[in-house]
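Sanity check record (used in CI):
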Amino acid sequence: MNRLQLRSIRLVEVLAALAFLVIATITVFAIAPGIVPGAGGASGEWTGTESGPLGPADRDFLVKVRQAGLWEIPTGQQAQERAGSERVKEVGRHLVADHTKLDEQVRALAAQLKVPLPSTPTADQQNWMAELSTKTGEEYDRTFADRLRFAHGKVFAVVAAVRAGTRNDDIRAFAQVAVDVVMKHMTLLESTGKVDFASLPTPPPPSPNPSK
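Expected output for Putative outer membrane protein:
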């Protein structure tokens, strides 16, 4: 066998090896679409965990639960000093107790799933806290009920969507707890009689052909 033939054989072997690697790579991504190896993963990535795939919506859910506690716990405490209504003070105590427990759970779960959590409220939440700190009595009661009811309505949509569609068992179980707490708080805030329902966002119109 001459040198030219040997080179041709080696070239064929190299090309065959490269083709095998390409096919293997394509097969991996076909079997596990969207799964990117890593510890916690960036916000737009899917990662594998012992309790199932963890996606961007799952991480966002944990972040929003954490941020809710960061402003609702101090605001519930503040209500004990500034609210004029005993009912508003009572609702504030429920918010403190429930979010304290929820915050412990979300921090533990986020640590387990390697999801970084914020340590400060959002800009909107900070603005609401600053606004409430200037009010007392009846004015405080109305602002407290409106801002918190609005905030709970927004987070309820997020939590419900994650509960309905997450692929992660731990996230699903925690979302069940969170959706119950958020629903409880919306009901409590409405029970104060201070919520201005006309100021809440209008629900989206139904689709023309709703699926069953």
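The chain is about 70% helix and 0% strand. If this sentence no longer matches the regenerated tokens, the check is flagged for review.
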